[in-house]
Protein 1
Amino acid sequence: MMRRIFWPIVLFAPVLLMGAAPLGESGIAPGSPISFKSCPILRREPESMRLSKQVPCWMARHEGKLYYIGRQEDMSAEVFPPQFRHQVLVEGVVAKGPAVCGGIAIQPIRLSIMPELDFSCQEMLPAQGHLAPPGAHDAEPSRRDGIRTRPEIKAGADGVYRFPVLFSFDSDHVDKFAYLVVETVAKELLSTGRYALELQAVTNPAELTPGGALPEKDGVGRERVEAIVAILRGLGQAIEPKVVYAARNPTSNGLANYSGRHVVMVVRPI
Amino acid sequence: MIGAVLCGHALAQSPAGGNAASPDIRQPAIARLPVAEFPNALGKVGVIMPDRPGAKLFFDPSLSANGRSCATCHLPSDAMSLSAASAQKLWREKGPQDVLFNAVDGANCPNARSDAASSHSMLLKRGLFRIALPWPPKRRDGTVVTPEFGIEVVSDPAGCNLDPKYGLHSAQPRVSVYRRPRVAANLLLIDQDPWRLAYNFKTGKSFEADLETGKLVSMNLMSDARALTLKDQAMQALRDHMEVAHPNPATAAALADFERGIYMAQSVDRTGGSLNGPDAPEAIGPTRLPMARPLGNGDKLATPVFRSLAAWRAPPGKRKLTRQEAFRASAARGYDVFFLRPFYIRDAMGINSIGLGNPIKRTCSTCHTGEFTGNDIIMGSMDTGSVNIQTTQTDPAFYRRLSDLPLFRITCKTSAKPHPFLGREILTHDPGRALISGRCADVGALTIQQFRGLAARAPYFASGSAATLLELVDFYDTRFDMQMTRREKTDLVNFLSVL
């Protein structure tokens, strides 16, 4: 029902490396949570591979250390990729193992694109022998169709269905995974006319490393509700659901904080 | 010989060159021809039209209040659009009396002196018609959209946006932009059901729905998707371009039905030879299009946008190619450039903003996904910098060529989401989709056009800012720092010219 939060293990298969960072050099113990906001940095492929299918790496700096935060993927990727001209909120766990693409790996990881522009966020790094690890998609037309994972339709012991729709930090953008949840609820349950809908909008600050909370903007819960209601209307479900708002306190677990930004579609039999 | 062909169409297409238009281009009889062919500088364009009741209407000037027909601006000889060269030829032959130059949109501003060529410079120089849109925007039901931004006129060479009667501060405020007429062909391939989805993952919102039928629409018609269906577009055109006070819905429906049956592509290349018939590659030539069955996204190795041009590759082991073979091999290489040559796509709202990352290393087909057409199959509204002033990676000379277009300053409200790559203050020659949606993120977003019949309908881009295919390729080469070689550019131009 919820999308997976772990990248494929193939991401961390042995890759070409130079100057691998020693373990623990991040100052944060492997296996520890890490959250920070920073400009994304693109590490390019070597010039000799400029016209090849080799894709770039995404990096980010935090407290003087360079972290690997992902490689270029396609629309099926579960992590929304970074954007030049925007800072990125990184939430995840410092990975054990060697550096990737010349940076300390974070895995699992979740990224949120900060909405406001930051024109200083446009740094590119040269390859210096680093290559992005193998992944699902290269710099060429796709070999596969988009992956569509629909949520399981299963009521709780109380007979009530609950479907969390996840959102990025400060965002009301219904992404492709979130849409599948909304569409499933609309088509499989609401369209029967036998269910009532309640939306529970939850906001969740980020807890930055080494300290300090980053709250979500006021009103983002309402915006998320409105986005879902608009999608439902587009699917032929012009309903006025009951809405409940809640705010969570952040924890040191960035992934939990990320998952805490959601709207639960609570579907009850009438 | 190969060197001469490599120069090929990249140099042959002159901004001043034009189509030797058939004298019968505005007659309905051509609808009864299997393929009506019309010469152009690079060969011939072929048009297939269905023999339906709407055919007569399409060419009938009595339909309008100002002597125009649909064919006035959507000429079969010009790939169902209008080339600047055709406009210039009509001016030379008939002057301002030709209905093409009617003041409503064929002049830079309705109050301009009609007999002066300078009053029609947008149309004559770049094939642009004036499109006047209400400000603030209005919804389909007539209610007003509260825009996320304010708009100011920075520069107004045509004089219409600051005009007291027709401009932004008039009694009926309007924004006048200048755009090329869209291609009225291959529309069944362009206007597809929105990819089996009710949701536009680019915007995070639902697609709009046809008010009559409730059916979701592609939002791929018009530069700004302001018309949701072909019938809707016909109604708007009858009212706005043909000045019919009360358009007849049945007429619009008949026109739409006719347009759905029109197919068009380059049918002969002057060097490459016939582009029709069973020997032509699968996606080349107009006769293949009525049978085309697109499966979805053409940015896939299994279903490439224009299928395969392998039959045109240089025969292995053959050292001396004929002129035709060399050209065809060049076009095949050009397809490889389009489909397989990666580069960094950057700061393009509508592609970098949708979950692919900014920048992303991909290919031309990442945006031009429409199978058999080369448009974008998923509501292809994008800002690639063709009208918004970009601050990086764009040749300043490109914007100097747009200096005769109005220039607007868009200032986004602090409560609104900014344009994802340009922020809250944007200079633009055409606010694009934002004039319909009122959204800041849509400033400068224009619907990607199809590739068919390019040889017959220069200039290119909605602003007409690329006079030739080479200038079009140069724009992207500079905009995205592709570092294309001269040979790659020639090959790509040759490929584009046979579509």
Protein 2
Amino acid sequence: MSTKKQDERVEMLQGTLDLLILRTLQLGRLHGYAIAKAIQFKSDDVLSVEEGSLYPALHRLIKRGWISFESGTSENNRQAKFYRLTAQGRRQLTRETSKWDKFAKAIARVLRPVE
Amino acid sequence: MNRRKRMLEGLDEDIREHIAERTQENIDRGMSPEEARFAALRKFGNLTRVKEDTREIWSFVWLEELFQDIRYALRTLAKNPGFTAIAVLSLTLGIGGTTTIFTLVKGVFLQSIPVKDPSTAVVVYSTQQTVDGEVTEYLQNAFLNAKDYRENNDAFAGLAMFMDAGDELEISGSAAPIFADVQLVNWDFFNILGVRPVLGRNFAKDEDETPDARPVVILSYALWNTKFAGDARIVGQNIRLNGEDYNVIGVMPKEFQQVGAIGSPDLWAPMMMHDQLVTDPRKDRFLSRRGRLVFMVGRLKPGVSFSAANTSMRALSDHLAEEYPAENSGRNVVMVPLSETNVPPVQRSLFLLVSTLMMGIVILVLLIACGNVANLLLAREMQRRRELAIRLSLGASRWRLIRQLLTEGLLLGFVAAALGIGCATGAIHFLWKLLPGGKPQGLNFSLDGRVVLFTLGLSVVATLIFGLVPSLQVSNPRQMGALRDRSDLPGGGGRWYGLRGFLVMAQIAFSLIALVGSALFIHSLRNAEQLDPGFETKHELLVFLDPSRQNYPQERTEQYYRDAAERVRALPAVADAGIANSAPFDESVTASYTTFPEGVDTSDLRNASQFPVVAVGPGYFSAAGIPLLRGRDVNDFDAPGMDQVVVINQALADRLWQGQDPIGKRLTCLAGRTLQAEVIGVVGNVKVRTLEELPQPILYFSLKQMYFPNAVLYVRTKGDANSALSSVRSAVQSLDPAIPLDRPVTVSSLMDQMVSGSRLAAELLMGFGALALLLAAVGTYGVMSYSVSQRTQEIGIRMAMGAQRGDVLRLILRNGMTMVLAGVVAGLGASVFFTRSINSLLYGIGSFDVASFFAAAAVLIAAALFACWIPARRAMRVDPVVALRYE
């Protein structure tokens, strides 16, 4: 079992997941489970990640200061933490989104030349 | 931190909630409650992993891992007490020994001098070249010459003279009389050194201008504290020194003692008071340029380098030699930084050599110890291959594993270092007490951080290097073969023991070098102890007579000497008694005179030689056991006013009148005044300064013609010298009970003292050699033992194929001893190379002394053989059935 390649894959996935979370929170505050569902829903179940990996991602984003949290109650009257974007997080999202767009466009041009 | 706490607090709950919600959704979709929960959990993933990963985000990962590593290392070390004990002990001894020796050496050589800017303070000595080309260094300068240097140099911001007044002078007054050492200095002496008094003031310029004009003194702290009760009111008062009143103007600070060549005088007086304060014969030649009286200490001008100052001063010397050819020809100067005069410059190179030798050997011991630790670590890591392989396959990072192995090594190192330093502290004090007398007081032996750091660094680096290599090897994930329980791994079988074998060879080589060093020293010491010093040693006593303490005038003193000798001669236990002015090997009293043989031009100093001088009474030679070879002894008819008579020894006769009869020849000596002397006898050679010296020429004058206020009574006893001590003492004491009498000493105890320094060095070296041997033997045993356990299978096969027990024994022994002998050969080669540099320390043997090399090698091979024997016997006892079963 080579650990190096696995580390790389994990890192890539981490970055993508972080981005997805930020995007999901762009529209408002959500609690943990809701975020998981939103990602799953939005991506048509394509990007199915282990749900558990959501939590380290959330903590990572908090540590970096891109999202913040507060305690509250969900629709089902359950205690939960609610997460939302910070201004910094918003800026990061814009940056990353434009990077992805460029990336996607480049891939598209390669895959479907002369459109 | 707050965030962290809040986040982590709710984590379990958050996750529970998440799963609960998913479960509910599944139920809503139609699953049964158990199925729903199951599905939710599966979708969530590894709960533990998620929690760990999340927590990791917030932790100082490296710190927690470090603590984990340390705890694990401690557990592992505790589980193998044998291994840990040997490793820690080896390292402790190595680190302790190195720290001890290094600190001692540093304390002696690098003692800080309590002056300002010690690096620019320089002591200036005079040198004399004689007609045969020999140059004697580190002599005093003549007063007038020194004055010229002081006034005409351009290299020093200030250059001051200092000289010891000579005899101890009495400070009388209310309390009991005290005898003090006085040092005469120029007025700017303390200013040049940058030292300010702690009370009062320094000398002023006008106090050093006119002879005898201003009787002032500055007290040392020690004298002030002990004899003047530390009373600050002493400043401004008078004390009575040598019969005259002196005004105390200041007290020097406590740290101003042991100042290199300056020493620790009790008080200082201006140079211009020399007439009153110098009471020995030097008094009369104070203003003669031929005499030798003062040393100088100077402060280099800013920007002037040591070598530039040297050149400039030597140019001045040449100029002085031109201007005063009669007195100064062949004279020059030599400069030594003040900080290097802790050890008298004459002995400095000897001390340096011995220190280097000690340090070298002790580093060898340390390296051997590190080798042991490394070997042990290596062995264990081999044994843990399985465990490590499993951990690797479970996903542990290789780097983490290596770090863990290294932590163990470091932990060992630190524990050993702490213990070693503890031992060193004790050892340092113990060793210092053991050193022979005459050692300076107040040396700083506190542990220097640099020394500790160096030894620690050395051991850590050595251990790490050898711990790292196998760590890298072992943690290589491609070595999956370790999971299969095979013992034919590299480094385990066969004749070549790999890295571990190489380490052991190095250890053997190092310990051989250490042993050879010890053997050489011991051999040299035995030679020195058997030397004949030229006088009687076994049945000889010395009594120190000091009638000047009671202020006896000259005639009464001489009578005292005669009476003492007579009274002692009358004792039944005594065979003979005689007087001389100095005891053997007494450095401080050995005067020497500039001597011209008859028929040479006495105005040119280069025609003269410096010969040690002893003044003796009649019967001295027979009492001391020195044979009279030709002519006659001095007798009572050689009185003052008549021609000076002199007895010379064989070495002097050979030096000046080789092949001729020296009786009747004449000499001219400069001894304050100029003496003309006639040779009346020749006696055998004796050792003057050291046991190993070549025969020294000596002049023996008659005490009656050359007065000395104190003397030594030599007593030859009929039986055991020790038993006569008290009767001799009471006989002399009865002459005048008021004269304090030091306890008589036997000459054999004096001789013991002479070699005690070398003896201590030899014992130390022997101790370190033994230590090196022990550690190397332990290392050898370790490797052999491990190898045998690894080769159990092979041995079983051999035995099953018909090998006898004896064959197995021989096989193992042969393998082991090949390794050992390789090390011995390497060690011998290295020894030949290294011991050349200590040739000058050895007496009677060259550095390639076959006996020593042979002895060292023999001892080492014997020990190593024993170390190989034990595991070999174990191999012999292997039961082939059991061995083969372990496939």
Protein 3
Amino acid sequence: MKNIRHYTLIWLLSLLVIGMGRAAEKVAVATKVSGLVNLTKSAKAKSKSSTLQPGAILEDGDFIKTGGDGFVALVFIDDKSSLKIKENTELEITGKRQAASIAKKINLDHGTLRAQVTKQVKGDFIVATPTSVASVKGTDFWMISDPIQGDQLIGLNGVVELMNVFSGMAMDITGGFTGNSLADGGLTSDVTIPETIPDDPDEETEQSKKSILKIQFQGPDNTVKTLIIEYQ
Amino acid sequence: MDEDLLISAGLLVELPVAEVTLFFRPAHSQSYYERRMQYQTGEWSATIVPGELSAGGIEYLIVMRTTDGRFYATPTDTPFETPHFVTVKPAGPAGRRFPGSDKVAAAGTVSADILILSPQVGELLAPEDVVIALSLFNADNIDTSSIRIEVDGVDYTDQALITADIISLHPPEMASGLHTVRVYLATIYGISVTPVVWSFGTSSDYVDPEERLAYSGEIGARIASDRIESQVLNISEMTAKAEAGVSWIKSRSSLRLTSRESSYLQPLNRYSTEVEFGNYLKIQAGDFYPLLTPFIMDGKRVRGVGVDLELKWFHFQAVSGTSERQVQHRNRLDNGYYLAGVDQDSTGASIYTLDRNGYTFKRQVNAYRLALDIKSKYNIGLAVLKSKDVISSVDKFIAGGVFSIDSTNTGGISTVPYQNYTYDEFASAISGSGAKLNFADLNWGGDSPEENLVAGLELGGAFDDDRLRVEANWYISLRNRNIWEGTMTRAQMDTALDDSLDGLIGVQYDEFGLIVGKPLMIDTLKIFDPVKYENIFTININMVPLLPFDYFAYEDAPLRAILNMPSTAYNLKIRGNYFKNNFSAEYRQVGPEYVSFGNPYLTSNIREFILADRVLLLDNKLLINGSYKYQSNRILSTTVDPYRTNTMQANITLAPGPDVPSITVNFQSMAKSNVMAGSDTVGTSESDVRESTLTRNSLMSINFPFRLSGMTSNLVVNRYQIDNFDLLADERRYDFVFNSTDSRSMALTLTSKFTNIPLRTIINLSQTTLNAAGFDYNWIIIGFRGMYSVNEDKTRINAGLNYLRSSGFTIANVYNTTTGMEYYLLKNLLLAGTFQFQIAHTPSWKNDKADNDGNGKTDEFLEAVKLNSSSINLTVNYRF
């Protein structure tokens, strides 16, 4: 009996030590950073924040805060789903490893983000705000969150299930529609007004996609040659 | 798949070729392999070995570089995105295959599931924006120490972040041109992995999409016709919006023109333009709704200019414009001029007194707010608003303005015929009759011009890593209800509170010249001269309040007198976020005479104390809200029968997650009393004006999502109940009537979306029972609405039918139907129309022997049926 207690104690202590030493799981990489963007490694640990650098690897529990001119684009490592985070936004990135994917949950305190999500197993990509929970099934959408006014989810493609946490009401938001989840529990959807779609600093417009892209080459005789590629 | 694939390319024209490269990949995979092509007998060729082939086919492209730096590619258009394709047939039955042998390349390498995260194949970037990233998430057994990453042949491994899951490299700024990344890896068993190779471009000419001019907009038109009973309202409107800009400057403009616009009303057309310079400076022009602080300016439309400059430690806002435009007169009889009366002078001649009304002065508004942020922890701000009616904006003589002369306004004394006149017609009529006209230049019978000055201070602080916030605001307002006669002089001030011009304010004398009571006794020479400050505020006898604080109360209790100044508003608020609790406590008071023309929606004469807490538990799945609010109007000690209200509210929501039922329960209890009151005499009878009531309000809502074959649905069940109690019922007289309305409501709403057909439906059923003054009223509503889209969502059709049955004094059935269609004529051109009509059926009208529809017949076939309302709405909208 004494031995059982002894081994149980060792086992529990081992679990504790293993748990303490377990490194946070790596979930994404920052592919573009502009303006003021702060990263707090593992929000739960409340460590000090530092400036987020392009190429930085993001882990489960990392907290990102963008300033008035800040912008971040990040890509998740399991399926290449991407997140674009605009100015004046605060969010926590969490990701739990599953067999061949990462169950992602973005805790958006406030601000604006765009999620371009590769088709997911249901519930594996969630954006949670103080007002709403958006369960993503493979889509492209903007989420604009304000803890006081509520949230606006602008669907660009695919389907997002938007649930208001105050009333428990839920509805599917598809491309071309905007879901409004209000702090009073209300949940409505309407046709998207194009002007309400935030600018994506990282995306070429349809018009710009038709632009001519130029790459300049300088030869040994200092002559400059230009490679012209037309994108449709 | 067991044979080499030879790819060759030749030239039909002479070109100075320096290098030809073959890029290939298994169809639809992320990255390309790269192989230099060899020149032999007039063509360039390269071989793809069987281990590099894929059963799904091979995609390839060829890029040729000439000695003068030009690039040519095949395919010519978007070669990396739309490469050539070669079908690969599986190997025949001959030959022996071993498990896993398809993963081993001919050169003794194995393939691995490596995902290129950034940059994309063929992507063009600014030279400084390059981040190279690959995911090893799904690649097992990679030896991270074996990883080598090269860009254009230069080894950057030392600069890369390499983990078991990710390779990330942010290289120094790269030269413009085409770049090739090669990543070499090996397994923990020492077997090489097929290198990952792909290319991307950089250009100093690259223009960030954000820096390109982007624009969008919308133009629309709407015509609508609504008919309710015999009233018909036709409206036509045109709207336009446009937005353009680059990252650092953006502009938005909007326009609304409506047929309801009239010079007799405040403007209904809207014009606005907004220019934003980054996140720092915003300039607004036209119609806009500025927000400075709720106590000064919030929710009021202004036509003018607004500036908002926000830096890290400094925030300045300015607004200048008009909140009301001048209206010379209304479009109604006696709403421009009116005859105030007729007298006769000593000669017997009639004197007609004409007056103006129906006008509105132009109201000028200027408001400013300056706030400083100290170390992102404390903030201090000052705000001021001045609003003044422009007296000269309203003309004494106007072109329209028809008024009536009849026996009611002449007292039967008139030398001109009873009829309607314009001013010119009337002046001409009385001049011929020998009568006189009395028409004042100011103090007309309509509204008097007013002025409002508000100023205040705001303080705030954030503590404990922003988890605790404290804010305090204090504002004082001055209002002048009549500035026709401008600022008062010192002599006028002397007699403002008493009748004697003695150089002292507030001193009254008895018939013996002795001072009466406890006088205010302020020497007019010792106080400021109002005339010197008339550009800031018009000081005269019409000021409200005349003195901002109670002078006598100040002598007794200075602090209390200042806090309860009737023209002040203030609040103190603490907000915190600890242990999953989001709580706030606020004390707020708005004096009975506090007014800001910038926020007409602010409730005055109210004191309130609010406590609220919100806690999120179970990973935000369980929400508990609780609040307590005390309200009273007992700000001034002189308030008669002050009321007080205590409201408690609790809310619990359990929402486990999407596709799972959720429940919300809400309970509110509100006790209101004015127990200081007694009875009041109305005419000859005595009325009990005491109030002590309790109102209980409860709501339960269950949301039940479910899926059936071919359909996803959501069922919402709501139950709502309000009960009122008179807590003084036992003390009332038998004939006292307690005015209250109790209600109970039950509602079911089922929304469904069909997966196989583009149909959405909403079905709702509800029953409501009201009890008012002992009578019961019941409503039953049944409704159905469906939306169906066809032609790939280019056409959307919707239709709805509602039935309402009400019973109480009479039974009535109301049928309402709505139909509509949206049709995209072009991709961005939408045509839409809706039509609705409502019919009421009152069975009792069929047998009541009365002509209910006014057609001169009683109880005929359609006597009980009436078209209540109808409307048609057509819109066209184009987006660009």
Protein 4
Amino acid sequence: MDLHLALVGALAFVTAGAGALGGLGGAIILVPALVLLGVDPADAAPLGLLSVAAGSLAAAPTNLVEGVVHHRLGVTIEVAASAGAVAGALIAASLPVAIGVRVLAATALAAAIAGAVRRGVRNPPEAAFAAERSGEWPGTLAGAYTLGDRVVPYAARRVGAGLAVMGFTGVVAGATGVSGGFLKTPAMTEVMGIPVKVAAATTVFTVGVTSGAALIVYAGDGRLDVHAGAAVVLAALAGGRVGAWLQSVLSPVLVRRTLSVILVLVSVVLGVRG
Amino acid sequence: MIPSPASLPSRDRFAALIRFLQGVLVAAVVLAGVGLFADAAAWAMVGLLIAAPLVRVAWLGVRWSSRGDRRYGVIAAAVLGVIAAAAALAVGT
């Protein structure tokens, strides 16, 4: 890769911060930014995946303490998502650059739409579950989580349809280097009926596995610039912390909508260039 | 909907896993810093980022299987199988 490490690091810092602030993740902005600077999409993708993996690892201890990750649901959808990611990474290696850029443009547009769509509270609290602790129920794809001082039970629905969508998100993640979280979380909430808080935390868990599956393929294909990867990991972790802190002083809704506009512009530029 | 049996807070149930992941994160940051200049450290960082979630899945699979939840133990093993297939493909290409 021809880009200077400092530039790659600066990009990863800014995009991770913006992604953490807007709830879209950093890779969806980082990978298109690298491609716009002349990096081959198949070389930019593994750098995006490294930022995803680092972010997932950084968030894991906090999510485990909060008890909102549904691990059984996560591994169930990961069978499809990881298989899709491997397929996507294999496809990316043989895609012409122009098509890879267009796939990335479409992905950025989808992320822009996902970030702009509002979500309401779909799973109401139930008094009968007031004594339940937050967490998943053994042997099931159901559980409960605390919303303020109330307990919300939930159970996954339309699991087959959810798995199909997860397979597709895996292909997108593997081929483009983004986490696919902007597709996974809405798939869990809209298709499978999972509360947003649980879906988001479970997505953070699963994207770590998905990105790892695709990274193995890219590493084996000799597409991974490890020095640039080290810069991305350091900068993305720092940027993510700053973004999480900024959430307390900036409006996440305003930031998410701003990011959506930026992603639409990125999508248009990539589409024209491709 | 049938409520689950009483259980410990999540931070207690997953205390060992939390400590492990926190340690891996610190190691990944150190390796990334050294990895800016040294290939071996950079590759070790990549290996750690790939392996950490897989260790988490394996830990969960063993835990579920040992507590009689075999279905999800098998599903966790299936995820690891997909990753193993990816590794075989990577070596093959």
